[in-house]
Amino acid sequence: MNNNLASTQSKVLIVGYGNDLRSDDGVGQEIAKVVARQNRVGVRSLWRHQLTPELAADIAETELVIFVDAYLASQMQDVQDVKICSVEPLDSGTPSSHSSDPRGVLLLARTVFGHCPPAWLIAVPGTNFELGESFSPTAQKGIKRALEQLDRLLETHRFTIAS
């Protein structure tokens, strides 16, 4: 898998995940790829089909991690927006070798590598999760909005992670 890396010394890690062969489910990967093409200083971008335990090492080396994924938006809602929330590692338990959600991977980073940075999840609305490689109008709007929110989040944290 070819993932563009801005730097191995990155302070921020963007992890976009989802199935890029299931239409809107691929928005996380798409956003991570857009960020990678921007070549932002101090920002590393990875895209994956799913979250795996191997990500814990990358997460433990950063000062901020931002996960990006899709969520199924109700087609009945008039307003569907990008959701942003902070993410904490699981409170307890043994890290799983099959971690597939942000909280489990964060717990693994803390347990195995001794560091868990602040983390955020950007969830992008989607309405079509059928087989395919194109995005619905809802997801297309969500991608644009998510990139704007990502810029704001990075700007907000720029001062707390400055050298």
TrEMBL record:
<dbReference type="GO" id="GO:0016485">
    <property type="term" value="P:protein processing"/>
</dbReference>
<dbReference type="InterPro" id="IPR023430">
    <property type="entry name" value="Pept_HybD-like_dom_sf"/>
</dbReference>
<dbReference type="GO" id="GO:0004175">
    <property type="term" value="F:endopeptidase activity"/>
</dbReference>
<dbReference type="GO" id="GO:0008047">
    <property type="term" value="F:enzyme activator activity"/>
</dbReference>
<dbReference type="InterPro" id="IPR000671">
    <property type="entry name" value="Peptidase_A31"/>
</dbReference>
<protein>
    <recommendedName>
        <fullName>Hydrogenase maturation protease</fullName>
    </recommendedName>
</protein>
